[in-house]
Design a protein that fits this description.
4-stranded parallel beta sheet, 12 helices, elongated
């Protein structure tokens, strides 16, 4: 998880204090926009195309605007480096190179699901990079998937649209998210409530938050449901989807459901692969880009 380094913050503070003295020595730049796609990242090769698909959507929507990718998860970047694979930069690194390319205004495109710790880190980073002498003028972060109240019914409909065609009446759809100790975890039960208005057998559960796997299994048993389709609610169907959701270990969701007498059928498709869900992220990005002064 990204944490803004104190040393970089101190450097920013020193430069900010020196801004009045430096201002007269630099001609004002013409505004120029760029977009940085901020994904958590993945080390699962078959999951990476979903992130690239989001990058490609951005490039198609904003021709002529520089678009780059960063991974917010240091553990993912380090793992890729150890394996000798190409490593997208950290968010701070991705932003730091843009002024030399003439960029003044940046939309940091958040591929987070909720406004949790990771999103807070991006917002702090954007604030620190905005207004640096000889640097970026504006850095703004787009809203994550579940942010405003109007996002919830739209996301619920988009998720339900991804239901397997083979699903039969009485079978559950279970959308599996990450979960967090951040107060933003409340987005998951809010989404659960919204889904139930549209489909009483659609559920939300999380790996590390609420609703928990135990909450889900108790609810499925209470309703007498015997089969559940497991749907990743991550940007990509990466490590959490393969292991925590669908793994063979006894503590995975699939194994716990089987132990409770409920058949589980995992679907390996993340939100980056769902066009209707991706469209919501893209709308959030549009609001951010439209508010930037550059072209």
């Amino acid at each position: 998880m990204l944490r803004f380094p104190r040393a970089l913050f101190a450097l920013w503070l020193c430069l900010a204090m020196a801004a009045p003295a430096l201002a007269g020595h630099e001609a004002k730049k013409e505004p120029k926009r760029a977009i940085v796609v901020a994904a958590f990242g993945t080390s699962v090769p078959e999951a990476a195309p979903a992130i690239q698909k989001m990058v490609d959507r951005v490039k198609a929507a904003y021709p002529g605007v520089p678009v780059s990718l960063c991974y917010t998860a240091s553990m993912i970047r380090h793992k890729l480096a150890r394996e000798g694979k190409a490593v997208p930069p950290a968010p701070a690194e991705a932003l730091a190179v843009l002024p030399d390319k003439g960029v003044t205004d940046v939309a940091l495109f958040s591929l987070q699901t909720i406004p949790g710790h990771e999103y807070d880190d991006l917002v702090r980073l954007a604030e620190a990079f905005s207004g640096l002498p000889k640097g970026l003028t504006h850095v703004s972060v787009s809203a994550p998937l579940l942010f405003a109240k109007e996002d919830f019914p739209r996301v619920a409909k988009a998720l339900l649209a991804s239901a397997p065609k083979d699903r039969k009446p009485g079978e559950a759809l279970v959308f599996v998210g990450h979960g967090t100790d951040h107060p933003a975890n409340m987005a998951y039960p809010a989404l659960q409530y919204t889904l139930w208005q549209l489909d009483p057998n659609a559920f939300v559960t999380t790996v590390e938050g609420t609703p928990s796997f135990e909450n889900l299994i108790a609810e499925l048993k209470k309703r007498g449901i015997k089969k559940a389709w497991l749907m990743p609610m991550f940007a990509v169907a990466g490590d959490h989807a393969h292991n925590d959701m669908a793994g063979k270990e006894k503590d995975s969701l699939a194994s716990q459901l089987a132990a409770a007498g409920i058949a589980a059928t995992p679907q390996m498709q993340g939100n980056g692969d769902r066009d209707a869900v991706a469209a919501i992220w893209m709308d959030h990005l549009k609001k951010t880009v439209d508010a930037l002064p550059g072209k």
